[in-house]
Every structure is written in structure tokens, then in C-alpha cells.
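Recall that a protein's primary structure is simply its ordered list of amino acids. Everything else, from secondary elements to tertiary packing, is in principle encoded there. The following example makes that idea concrete.
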Amino acid sequence: MEFTAKAIAEFLQGEVVGNPEVKVNNVAKIEEATPGTLAFLANPKYNKYLYTTEASIVLINKDFELEQKVSLTLIKVDNAYESFAKLLELAEQARPVKQGISELAFIEESAKIGDGVYIAPFVYIGENVIVEDNAKLYPHVFIDDNAKIKKISKLYSGVKVYHECVIGENCIVHSGAVIGSDGFGFAPDENNVYRKIPQLGNVIVEDNVEIGSNTTIDRATMGSTFIKKGAKLDNLNQIGHNVQVGENTVIAAQSGIAGSTKIGKNCQFGGQSGVAPHIQIADGVKVTPQAGIPNTIKEPGSIVMGTPAFNIREFQKSFIVYKQLPDLFKRVKELENEIKRLKGE
């Protein structure tokens, strides 16, 4: 499909600078764009590409000031990144909608299947499962007994949802994710042999959550592990039993949240961050990549860094000293030698 700059600007409520009739049929990164594509510029690091890109149309912020003339067409919007995301959503919605139930899927008789669903070949749906309207289950999805998949949710190939777990409305679960595997619960007996503690709870994923590929979310020992509405989990995350991830919290790849930890809403976790068990993280906390959090963070909106993690400003000051340790050590040795010499005299 082709769209003119004028049509795109009207959709985004933006302003065209240049030829309003120029057409595009694809999107691209600004540094790799070719004629007929649309790109966007939001990060100042990429400003230089605006003057060399071959894109036909570029979205820019309204407050962006040109350093030189450009021959391409610009569309000025309030937020170029957000506007580009809207266009991608529009393109996604234009794709053909899959519906229907494959004869190669196996569905237990007691399961309830809604209208407009897509159930691909080799999907298994267990006893008393509920799959609501317009849900999509791709090949090799496994839905265990008494689980529930709510409206419009997508489960990509190889997703496993264990018994009695719930996936909310309009969720996306990517390939290889496992929802509801047993929490890591073991207790040593008198012979120091570890005995398994039965995990009798479930996982509840609320609405508008996205879960990345090969992420695992453990079921609760008792009660529920909660992923609250709007949360976004990247690939390869581990969420322990009885954890609560707050609303609109994002967790980047390879992070681990240990059991029974409660994370507030609107938090941000960088990649490879780790959180100890049985602690609480306040709303709006930002955690830098590879940070390790051993204790509760009570201050909302704080930014923490390092292992053990503490306030980012204090960490940066400490790191300056840390880098100087070799010189400081050398100076201490010199002072020790000088003291010995003075004592000798």
C-alpha cells in the first residue's frame, strides 16, 4: 500500500514541509532508508543522517531546527518516535487477520472456545480451558487444564501456559515463554536432602501485557504470581514465584526477580538486573543495567546503580574514587616508606 505525505500528516495531525504528494510504501531506519520509504528522527545522535538519507519522507519533532536545506519531505509532529509507532501499528492492523480452528489442533471437549479465534495446527487445549473471542494461538502452543486466555491475546509458537493460569485481554506472549512452571521451592530434611514444596498457586497476567521470548514466570506456592496490566517483559527474563510486577513496569532482557518480591508501577529495569527475594520496590524506580538490588527501595522515582545497588549520584561519585584506587594505593605505600625512613632517622 502507498500513502502520500499529506495522508500521513493528516493521520498524525502533523505539518508537511515539502512535497505533500510524495508517496511511500515502506518504512526504514533513517541511516538505511531508500527512495519510497519513510523514516523518523528522534535521537540527536542520528541528526547527521537527515542530510544524507535517501528516505522520501522523514518524521521530525516540531521543535527540530534544520542546520541546512534538505530535498526530502518532512512531516513535523509533536513526538516523532510516538508518531512512527502509530504508523507501525496501522501497518500491523492492515495485515490479513487469521481465523479458524485447524483440524490438526487437539481441543478437549470441555474447553470453551470463543468467536473469531485462530487455533493453528498442533495446538493443545486442555480440560475446562476458556479461550475468549479473537484470541490467536500459533502452532505448538500448549494450554493446560483450567487455564484462561482472554480476548484478542496472541500466543506465538511454542508458548506453554500451565494449569489454572490466566492470560488477560490484548496480551502478547512470544515464542518459548513458559507461564506457570513451578516456583523454585525446596526444603532440606534432617539428612540435608532437598524435598520439593508443592506449588499450588497460579500466574495471573493482566490486560495489555507483553511477554518476551523464552521468559519464564513461576506459579505461586500459594495464591498468585501477578503481572499487572500494561507491564512489558523482554526476552529471557525470570520471574519467581509469588512476585508482583506493577502496572506499566518494563523489564529488559536477562533480568531476574526472585520470589515474593513486590515491584511498584511505572518502574524501569535495565538488562541483566537482579532483585533479591522478599523485598519491595517503590513506584517509578529506575534500575540501571546489571544492577543488583539486595534490599527494599522505599523512595518512589529513585534511580539506582551498581551491585549492591544504591543512588546513582552516590554511585558515580564512588566510582570516581574507585578508578583512582591504584594511584591512592601507590601513594599510601610511598607514605608508609617515608614514615619508616623518618622513624629510622
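The two ends are 91 Å apart (CA to CA). Helices lie at 5-12, 80-93, 312-323, 325-344.
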